[in-house]
Amino acid sequence: MASLALVTGVGALAAMISNVIAGYLSDRTTSRWGRRRPWIVGGVFGGLTAGVGLAAASSVAGVALAWVGSQAAYGATLAALSAMLADQVPEAQRSRASGIFGALGFVGIVPALTLAALFPADLIVLAVAMPLVAAVIVPILCALLPDPPVGPAPSPRSDPGVPSRAGAGPQPTRRYFVFTWIQRAVMQLGYLLTWTFGLYFLISRFGLTAVGASRTSAVATLAAAAMNAVTALTIGYLVSKRGRYGGVIALSAIGIAIGFIIRAFAADLLGFWIAVVVASAAIGAYYSVDLALAMRTLPRGREGRYLGIFNIAKTAPQVIGPAIAPLILAAGGPDPINGAPDNYFLLQLVAAGIVLLSLLTLPFLRPVLRRPEDQ
Q1: Is the CB of residue 339 less than 8 Å from the CB of residue 204?
Q2: Which of 32, 44, 162, 166 has its Cβ near the most Cβ atoms within 10 Å?
Q3: Which H or E element spans position 155?
């Protein structure tokens, strides 16, 4: 468990740094290949190289080093890809695009899990196969996508895309970005507290063997990915018509918290599966609007830098979550549901509470939760 927390934490830290640097530089890249394409393609090939290193690693330090390289490379790809989305998708279609973006992220888990099931002991296949596929497909797709030059940058104190309530011109909006970032980070922290040690939860709570827990976890991940994708696409399409995100965010947070509470009290696998369905549907709905909301707060010409910072809200909890989860598991005595030493009951309830705390940011985001009237 300690090794997992170490590798996950340092990898997330590398992704955070890479997101900001690559996003910042992609805003200023003027190569013949465009602004975003070099970072997207370069990150994919960097990830492939790190995958080869991961397959060859023979120690925890080697695994950690390869994982850091992988997360840094794919962090660069994600920052540039998110910025390309902001460059080219108009406001009225951003929720739909956010839903597609989120759904495909979940669908991408399926091939990796399939490989893990077919080749459980073949580390080379597991570490290299999907990066190799990406290295073939992504450059082709990038060649087909437009990558327009940078536009004029606005004043750093305002975002012309968000009008004031009185309609009298632009107002300062950096604080909207800050509250959007906080909302995303808090939500992600609550989610990761339960996800990081999900395999150990199955072993501790239900007495499964390592093999049995691995299989159950794989099936649960596939089911969750399917539910995530369906709800992300559906909600993204429906919300794009009205452009109002507040209700979706609030209901999603409540749904995620309910899923975690169900998991906290689950004494058998039936309760676990109910929790998977409820939480996964809510998470998919949330991902249908979170990126679209962030894009409403971006100043033109600085999309890469700001979205790189926004992506930290997703990766920073990967550092914090593994660090504090063991402390929560050890607090308050044994698990009251089954008497196991690790208190997963408390961990689930803490995660649910953190997710609900993210809703405290919504009153501060009210002006950007609705589509600007002039767009």
Answers
A1: no
A2: 44
A3: none
For tokens 């296949």, the residue is 125
CA distances for 301 relative to 160, 338, 358, 363, angstroms: 12, 55, 29, 28
High-pLDDT (> 90) share of the chain, %: 31
Cα separation, 354 vs 360, whole angstroms: 11
d(C-alpha 158, C-alpha 297), whole Å: 10
- Could you tell me how many residues make up the chain? 375
Average pLDDT over residues 258-284: 95
* Cα 260-261-265 angle, rounded to 5 deg: 115
pLDDT range class, residue 45, cuts 50, 70, 90 = very high
Residue 311 contacts residue 78 (beta carbons within 8 Å): yes
What distance separates the 2 farthest-apart alpha carbons in the chain? Answer: 64
* pTM summary value: 0.79
| Nearest-10 crossing angle of helices 174-195, 344-357 | 170
Strand, coil or helix: 149 = coil
Helix and strand counts by DSSP (H, E) for the chain = 14, 0
